[in-house]
Amino acid sequence: MISDSALAESFFRHGRSDACPIIDMHGHMGRWKGIYFPRASAEAMIHTMDQCGVRLLVFCHHAALFCPDIGNAASARAVRKFPDRLRAYLGVNPHYGAALAADLAGFDDNRDVFVGLKLLASYHQVPWDAPAYEPAWRFADQRGLPVLGHTWGGSSLDGPEQVRRAAEKYPNVRLLLGHSLHGDWGEAAAIARDFPNVYLELTAVLDDRGVLETFVAAGLSGKLLFGTDLPWFDPHHGIGAILSAEITDEDRHNILHRNAERLLADVGAKPN
Ligand SMILES: [Zn+2]
What we know:
The chain is 42% helix and 17% strand. The chain has 272 residues and is of the alpha/beta class. It has one domain (2-266): TIM Barrel (Alpha-Beta Barrel).
């Protein structure tokens, strides 16, 4: 209950809680076609993070996903400017195989920046099991890296069947289901229970009331990761939804930072 939550009281009173240093596992950065983001630069995003008590953001710059001439260099610049607040996913664009090969070849030299990979199949219109993604999957599987994939219910590109197939084929990948197969909540919970390395990420999940409680009731408190798509959505909305859910403060700590801390430590990217 919210009324029993010391954590909720602390956030509602102070806007943040030192006892709960939030890790946002799903962000982006930079401008976006057709939408005005008032706070899209690294500096402005960190200002937002400070206001909301977000300790660390793991993100993938929009340029890494949509501007191959700039690519992942944009993420690297931001992380190196704010190494205590930011880490990045290496963006995988399946339409630029040569650039991807070069990025993967340089990955190990840039471990101070990159903790894993990011797929955006629904936007790139290439299914997860397409040959263009195979080098990225194999690379992540060999190293046991996190892969944050945008996933959506009903999609033939990154929906439940694609997710299940990837989880079976690449068991060492820490598979982070961005948006938790939005709308296909039952399948998301089933897959997260079936595969030890599958996690559910909560961006846009919290627009649907009751889903979080369903996930926690399914025994998945230890596999849920907080995320916001920053600068798309305000962290205070997501944090407020978690504080207002009918779950315990232990669950809230798991979701808001502990699960991410453990995951990042497991892959050698322990936050400072
Ligand atoms: Zn995203």
